Amino acid sequence: xxxxxxxxxxxxxxMHRPQRLARRRELRRIEAxxxxxxxxxxxxxxxxVGFLVPLIAGxxxxxxxxxxxxxxxxxxxxxxxxxxxxxxxxxxxIVILAVAxxxxxxxxxxxxxxxxx
Length: 117
Fold this sequence. Notes:
mainly alpha, rod-shaped
């Protein structure tokens, strides 16, 4: 076998160089044809501000009904953990939960206030 003896390996590589180069060219051509047949699809990722909409909506829900806001924030965090979502999901869940807790505690401090269930 040519790979056991370094001299035989060099000789084999020298003799088979044209075939190896031709095979590499063929593989590059095949890859180029496959890339052309399969154009790259546009990314579905947002530009970075796409998480503001759920953040604003969740904040509004938390201000309107804090218990629903706590549920939405907790559910967002649970989904982020279970499905291993990105950092924006974690931020949205934490902010919604924090806003809901803030409004919940504020409603508890006010004397005579009752939430509509």
